[in-house]
Specification:
Layout: H1 8-16, H2 22-40, E1 43-46, H3 48-63, E2 75-79, H4 106-113, E3 117-122, H5 156-164, E4 169-174, H6 180-186, E5 189-192, E6 212-217, H7 220-230, H8 248-251, E7 260-264, H9 265-268, H10 273-288, E8 292-296, H11 304-319, H12 338-349, H13 352-365, H14 370-391, E9 397-401, H15 417-422, H16 428-433, E10 437-444, E11 450-457, H17 462-474
Parallel strand pairs: 2-3, 2-4, 7-8, 7-9
Antiparallel strand pairs: 1-3, 4-6, 5-6, 5-10, 9-11, 10-11
Helix pairs in contact: 2-3, 2-5, 5-6, 11-13, 11-14
Amino acid sequence: MDLRKLTAEQIRADLLQRRYSAVELAQAALEFAERENPKTNAYLHFCPERALEAARRVDEKIARGEDPGLLAGVPTAVKDVILTKGVRTTCASRLLQDFIPPYDATAVARLEAAGAVIIGKTNCDEFAMGSSNENSAFGPVRNPLDPERVPGGSSGGSAAAVAQGTAVVALGSDTGGSIRQPAAFCGVVGVTPTYGRVSRYGLTAFASSLDHIGPLSRTVRDSARVLQVIAGRDPRDSTSAFAPVPDYLAALNGNVRGLKIGLPKEYFEGLSDEVGRPLQEGVRLLESLGCTVHEISLPTTPYAIPCYYIICTAEASSNLARYDGVRYTIRSQQATDIIEMYAATRGEGFGAECKRRIMLGTYVLSAGYYDAYYLKAQKVRTLIARDFAQAFQQVDLIVTPVSPFPAFKLGEKIDDPLQMYLSDIYTITGDLAGIPCMSVPCGRTRDGLPVGMQILANHFQEALMLRLADAFERAGGFQL
């Protein structure tokens, strides 16, 4: 069996027809992933015992004639900021290099209840802070399509694992584009659901009002299948929504005729030809499917970057205060009192990007600056959300680029934080507004690098967003 060609839907059908067992598939997936991982560093650690036990449960259900679940036997990777009981969760940080969680994240528990087989935890930017996956304490991830380039961040390990074929589906997290940008750079599908659609219980907090969990896969149908499983109300997360979860797979009927697609002019001004050309071809394909295209405006877009980097760093500085050497983390031995221990532990444990964001966040929350920065940023966030609300009164969906450029070289931007932050310019607005958005492959540059097309929808309209993405995939949009 070639894991690189299997889909979740096909695996489930094969298992039910007894073409192979879930245990055989899990063993093959583990062997393949461990053999291929040195090429990309996509995984930080594997969990063979857990994977084989989950696979055995699937085989036993099938033997008893029971439904094995929507994700029966599917080799799955989980970003290492999402808790897994008994399996190390490091957040790609030296501070948590030995941390073993006592419970599973809700999303993880729901995956396994649906038959998924979790084979390992994927590398990421430390505490999910970064846009290239170069900020990991355990080395950068390499893009499987070009090992000299980044896979995107912060869910670069999950995107690389799916693109490399070592996992069929994966979970990532998205705070400002950390699912969609790696999906675009690696040529896979990445979905960021509406804020509150998927429980954040067990997701290590970066910026709590912006964090999402979502799927990555090679096909839209597989992402819809994963979202079907992990979405829904969770009483352990007060921000999870009570909104009913529709049948996402049933929504993928291929019919998009008459849908109004908005192209925000602010997202296309000055866009390079290497990204703009495939996107223009993608838009023409949507028109050929019966969609109508309309120019719209999201006028507060230019303020999104400063708004986002004030809010996310403020929340990060608060959330990361718990990592002090007392409870979860390693503890510095270079201290004689508790204050020195705090400082030494955090100084030794956090990487440069985490320190940068903690300092920025602490500054904007400090006395005398709170109103000038944090409070003003929250007001701008409201204006950004209002822009989208008004736009969705005119159109059904919005299409934009994912990134201003394709995957860049390792080391190219790591020493220039501003340039790195600007790579999120098209993705952070969706997170600030809390709306669902996704990246789908939309052809390649002349150098053969993948380009992503971003689709954004109104709150809890994931089914409509996935339907457009699925129709685009069926029409050959991924190979433009």
